[in-house]
Specification:
mainly alpha, two-stranded antiparallel ribbon, single chain
Length: about 140
């Protein structure tokens, strides 16, 4: 392999990693934006039931949950790119199933209809950003 080819591969890899990191940051930002608009501005108390207690959802919880989901999705996509023939299609199928399963949480534990709807919106925002954004345009086949 020539030096030009190695530089091109390195540039592509760096660009792909940067794009994926930006996608995850965008997913986190989208979830936090929904929290800001609905909790402090609109006055919706975002709380969930955990056993006998209720817990208020705060910005660190939103950011950490979205970040963990994003990093897990990135790891899954990277693994699939090394092991299966159609990694993007496989990733999107798995991610859609995980997203659908994750919606059970807000539906079952959200306190109040408004809280449930906002929490569902957060899940859908993060999920959509990751499912659409992580594979990138070049891999959409």
């Amino acid at each position: 392999m020539t030096n030009d080819m190695q530089r091109t591969d390195t540039t592509r890899t760096t660009a792909r990693r940067t794009a994926r990191a930006i996608t995850i940051a965008g997913a986190v930002a989208g979830a936090l934006l929904l929290w800001v608009v609905n909790d402090p501005w609109a006055g919706i108390d975002l709380t969930v039931r955990q056993g006998d207690t209720t817990q208020h959802i705060d910005p660190p919880a939103v950011a950490v949950a979205a970040l963990v989901a994003g990093l897990a999705a990135w790891g899954l996509l990277a693994l699939l790119e090394r092991t299966v023939g159609h990694p993007v299609r496989t990733f999107r199928i798995i991610a859609l199933i995980v997203l659908a399963l994750s919606l059970v949480g807000p539906l079952g534990s959200g306190v109040g209809t408004s809280s449930r709807l906002v929490l569902l919106g957060m899940h859908l925002t993060v999920g959509a950003a990751l499912i659409i954004g992580l594979p990138g345009r070049r891999n959409c086949r």
